Amino acid sequence: MRTDMITVNTGSRPTVRDITTEARRFVAGQGDGLLHVFVPHATAGVALIETGSGSDEDLITALNELLPTDQRWRHRHGSPGHGRDHVLPAFIPPYASIPVLDGDLALGTWQSICLVDPNGDNPTRQIRLSFLPG
After folding, report:
1. Which tens digit of pLDDT belongs to each residue from 61-83?
2. What is the DSSP string of 38-102?
3. Helical ranges in the chain per DSSP H
4. Residue 78's pLDDT is what?
5. What is residue 59's three-state secondary structure?
6. Into which family does the record put it (predicted)?
């Protein structure tokens, strides 16, 4: 197994950050196997979605509607409504596994690997990439 940690700056507002390029670079030349992507944070997730067509913004809009940043949350440290950020991983898990064939990601035509980070209080995220050979 080969593992690496990458750092992603997400800024101070909710964001969907495409990390497919970094993931492709990590598995290049590795043959067949499985890429496991894991975000060791309690307020972020990993999604396989289309980007660049508005879907990333649509996801943030849907999360804001489903999990509003208001005072309903019992978890109350950080920015107002921050408790919703701690609920996010129940909806968008902090991990994804992607097949790797001949050293390339076996993603669908429109799929990208994305970090989903609604938490503007933590602008820097770590992502663990692990390659398990087949």
Report:
1. 999 999 998 888 888 787 888 88
2. E---TT-EEEEE--SSSHHHHHHHHHHHHS-SSTT-S--SSSTTTHHHHHGGGTS-SEEEEEEET
3. 20-27, 55-66, 83-87
4. 79
5. helix
6. Belongs to the UPF0047 family.
CB under 8 Å to 30, separation ≥6 — which residues?
A: 2, 100, 103, 131, 133
Site of tokens 């990208």: 112
Q: Which two tokens stand for residue 109?
A: 């035509």
- Looking at residue 52, which CATH number applies to its domain? 2.60.120.460
Beta bridge partner(s), residue 9: 124
For 103, the domain range is 2-133
Structure-token pair, residue 81? 């409504």
| Closest residue by Cα to residue 120 from 30, 10, 5 | 10
In the chain, the number of structural domains is 1
